[in-house]
Write a structure and sequence with these properties.
alpha+beta, three-stranded antiparallel beta sheet, two-stranded parallel ribbon, globular
Length: about 140
């Protein structure tokens, strides 16, 4: 299960749990995702950092965006979209598929999907190169 930070078109912020990214997309398309405050079905994911437990005191980090940061976010969002457009979505089988490609067991191609922190650590230990792709909310304007 994954917890998403969400917001509606009325700028209400809330959280909800889904099996994965596809589950959120499917439920949204079917009209099952709505704002608990106003009932709006125009709901999008908010930018969020992954939750990683370090056992230390948690600190909150925020970015107040000026014009340069806004432009960088636009470029980063465009790059993220281009990466997805040129890759196959493999869902929660990312670690398995990445290993198959790395070890030459299947056709080399670009892929993206989800991996647990443990799976990501295992990929690093196996020498598999990958990078996390950020998820952005749709523009609120």
């Amino acid at each position: 299960m994954i917890r998403f930070s969400l917001h509606c078109d009325h700028d209400h912020e809330f959280e909800a749990w889904f099996r994965n990214n596809d589950d959120f997309d499917t439920q949204k398309k079917r009209g099952f995702v709505e704002c608990p405050e106003c009932g709006s079905k125009k709901v999008e994911k908010a930018l969020m950092a992954p939750a990683v437990s370090t056992g230390r005191k948690k600190e909150k980090i925020a970015l107040a965006m000026g014009e340069a940061q806004k432009q960088a976010m636009v470029q980063l969002k465009a790059l993220s979209e281009k990466m997805r457009e040129n890759a196959d979505y493999v869902g929660d089988k990312f670690a398995e598929e990445a290993r198959k490609i790395h070890f030459g067991e299947t056709e080399a191609r670009g892929i993206y999907g989800e991996a647990t922190p443990e799976e990501a650590k295992g990929l690093v230990e196996d020498g598999v190169e990958f990078v996390p792709i950020p998820v952005f909310p749709d523009d609120r304007n």
